[in-house]
Amino acid sequence: MVMPVYTPALHRNNNMPRNELISRYFAQGYTNKEISQVLMAVHKISISISQIKRILRSLDLKRRKVNLPLPGIIGAIYKIIENSGQCLGYRAVWKRLTTEFGFFIPRKSVMELLRMIDPDGVTRRRKRRLIRRRYTTPGPNFVWHIDGYDKLKPFWVSNTWCN
């Protein structure tokens, strides 16, 4: 199990009820098995997956239920696209809708909405012709990219510093 870097519900808050912890982890996109493991590892609460399912059912939390009207979802997709999400595919947009906005919507619906909202972006991503960033900087070494892309690899320059 790989946990996100920052998970707000991970604070060891002994006053928080078990059901609220489960609903928070559910809203962050954890699976039922991951919720069970995190509750045991972090909060020392031993609970089975079937019990988590019963609690989620009693709280009326479902993964396949769209909980907000379509204009709200479309507005959230526009926010994602206009900010840093213009190069994201439908899976990453779906994940952001789930984790950041709390929308539970099928991935297929997100794919269809992206095709309607941003058809040019969909075709660019399909052809792998993405628009690269352009920078205007005040001087050298002002902006650095730390993305792990080794630009010197075609010239047989090793990126190892020590032997």
From TrEMBL:
Organism domain of life: Eukaryota
Name by which UniProt lists this protein: Transposase
